[in-house]
Design goal:
There is one protein chain. Strands 8-7-6-11 form a four-stranded mixed sheet. Strands 1-2-3 form a three-stranded antiparallel sheet, with helices on one face. Strands 12-13-14 form a three-stranded antiparallel sheet. It folds into two domains: about 10-50 and about 420-485, no CATH class; about 55-415, Cytochrome-c3 Hydrogenase, chain B (Orthogonal Bundle), CATH 1.10.645.10. The protein is built from 15 helices and 16 strands. It starts with 14 loop residues before the first strand and ends in a 14-residue tail after the last strand. It has helices at about 55, 65-70, 80-90, 100-130, 145-150, 150-170, 190-220, 225, 295-300, 305-310, 320-330, 340-360, 415, 420-430, 440-450; strands at about 15-20, 30-35, 40-50, 180, 185, 235-240, 255, 265-270, 275-280, 290, 300-305, 380-390, 390-400, 405-410, 470-475, 480-485. The chain is an alpha+beta fold.
Length: about 500
């Protein structure tokens, strides 16, 4: 088994195809593919073309501002950054254990975040590909087309996301960029009225989440030839796991498995993450390439997110989601599933788990409590790790005696998946890129592979496929052979026919 991306020899003699930007993902990125005269794929790279300066410009800011500032990285998963920063700064305050109200309010906030983000990705961004086919009419392959063809599915997907946003609003103060978590605790508990409002709908949400799992499972099992082979590659996987190896999105220790499911490390306190992980910088991307130090950069890269978490844990601590996890494991034959499209199935299992946890928390009177804060002996450094929708998220801060941030290191979920996404794109390009003609459906196959990871390329906002796109194919001498353009309204223009 090889984990290495191929490098192109004599690149000046190769043709280059560029997909710029990748659509229906968060942020901006592009894919470049190098082909020889026989159309053999020599190199495929996912380039992250935006620069994130948060690690620099928060230096010199008071530490208590950070949980609110860093969540501006993203408009879809701000809660994850908000909580990861708060957890890191808990350590700076010397807080090792929150009050029960603070702990459960943060969990409620985060599981609402998981619910809304997963629902958005599956129903709005990915279901058009999965329901209509990767090569289907681009004018229909969007959320509007899904609403027209499958109105009940679209409606429930929208309401799932809406409910998750309401959980966030009641726990963080706002649906986006709230202020609920602060170093040492939270600044509010739920009122009885807020809890009762959420309780009215939670049983519908659990039922609809089960339906979503069954839809994702049916899509996968009804076309195993595609779903089990599309963009498939083998890799290590990593996540945090909670007590007894349970799936836990909010807190736990680091665990990594190899591609066969064997343990690489387990029970690692994430305060020492930099003893086990290294970040490589490459000249062609603003996003780093993390890897496990003990395995080296060629063999030590890994994937994170739903597909890793569901297979890395021992069990899911809610009954309905655990039953679905067992069915997924049985389908995979007891060995790790590595197909990127299986991310969607496991993503919906996590939606069901989030709904079950929210239901249980809403029946826990601690979320109505009044003890919101605690404190300890002041420290100068802290690491906060959380399982964001897209995978394991690291926030690391150092603070001086004047309460100012002096160092910040962030490893966001998509960064952890960087090499894995490059591998998926390379495998799809090798299988589906044939001849000199460029079609919209061909380009979409490549984007589908990236989309399976639900990447946040700049930790910004979701782009709904309406960004302009131009792809040009050049011959060995650099002369144009063919070109395809997409307008800002998402419509593709006819090929210029340069290859004639």
């Amino acid at each position: 088994m090889s984990f290495n991306l191929e490098t192109a020899e004599n690149p000046e003699k190769l043709r280059r195809v560029a997909i710029d930007p990748v659509s229906r993902v968060e942020g901006h990125g592009k894919v470049t593919i190098l082909l020889d005269d026989q159309n053999k794929v020599h190199q495929v790279r996912l380039h992250i073309v935006e620069f994130r300066g948060f690690e620099r410009f928060i230096q010199g800011r008071p530490y208590w501002e950070v949980p609110v500032m860093v969540q501006r990285l993203c408009g879809i998963c701000p809660v994850s950054h908000h909580l990861a920063a708060a957890k890191a700064l808990d350590r700076v305050l010397g807080v090792r254990k929150l009050t029960p109200t603070a702990e459960k309010m943060r969990r409620l906030m985060h599981y609402g975040q998981m619910l809304q983000s997963h629902a958005l990705h599956f129903f709005h961004l990915s279901s058009p590909d999965l329901l209509f086919g990767f090569d289907s009419d681009v004018a229909r392959r969007n959320i509007v087309g899904v609403a027209e063809k499958y109105p009940e599915t679209a409606r429930k997907g929208i309401l799932l996301r809406k409910f998750g946003q309401e959980v966030i609003r009641h726990t963080a103060g706002k649906r986006v960029h709230g202020t609920g978590a602060i170093p040492g605790g939270v600044n509010k508990a739920l009122t009885v009225a807020e809890r009762d409002e959420l309780l009215k709908d939670i049983y519908h949400i659990v039922a609809w989440s089960r339906e979503a799992v069954h839809l994702a499972r049916e899509l996968h099992t009804s076309n195993p030839a595609l779903y089990n082979s599309f963009g498939i590659f083998r890799s290590n996987m990593m996540s945090i796991v909670g007590n007894n190896g349970d799936l836990d999105f909010y807190h736990g220790n680091l665990r990594a498995r190899d591609d066969n499911g064997g343990i690489i490390f387990d029970g690692v306190d994430y305060q020492g993450y930099n003893n086990i992980l290294e970040e490589e910088v490459k000249s062609w991307s603003y996003m780093k390439f993390p890897y496990i130090k003990s395995l080296g950069k060629d063999q030590g890269w890994y994937k994170v997110g739903p597909l890793a978490r569901v297979q890395n844990c021992n069990q899911i601590p809610t009954p309905l989601a655990e039953a679905e996890r067992r069915e997924f494991v049985d389908y995979a034959g007891g060995t790790p599933m590595h197909a990127p499209l299986a991310f969607h199935w496991t993503r919906m299992i996590e939606v069901l788990h989030a709904a079950e946890v929210i239901k249980d928390l809403l029946h826990d009177d601690d979320i109505l409590g009044s003890e919101l804060m605690t404190e300890g002996v002041r420290q100068q450094e802290g690491v906060g790790v959380i399982e964001a929708p897209r995978g394991t998220l690291f926030h690391h801060y150092q603070v001086d005696e004047n309460d100012l941030i002096t160092m910040c290191n962030l490893i966001v979920s998509t960064t952890n998946n960087n090499q894995a996404m490059n591998e998926a794109v390379r495998h799809v390009a090798r299988r589906y890129l044939h001849g000199k003609e460029i079609t919209e459906g061909l380009l979409n196959h490549i984007e589908v592979a990236i989309r399976a990871f639900d990447p946040c390329l700049s930790c910004a906002t979701h782009a709904l496929g309406k960004m302009p796109l131009e792809v040009e194919l050049l011959d060995a001498e650099g002369l144009p052979l063919d070109r395809l353009a997409k307008n800002g309204d998402g419509r593709f223009c006819a090929s210029l026919g340069l290859a004639d």
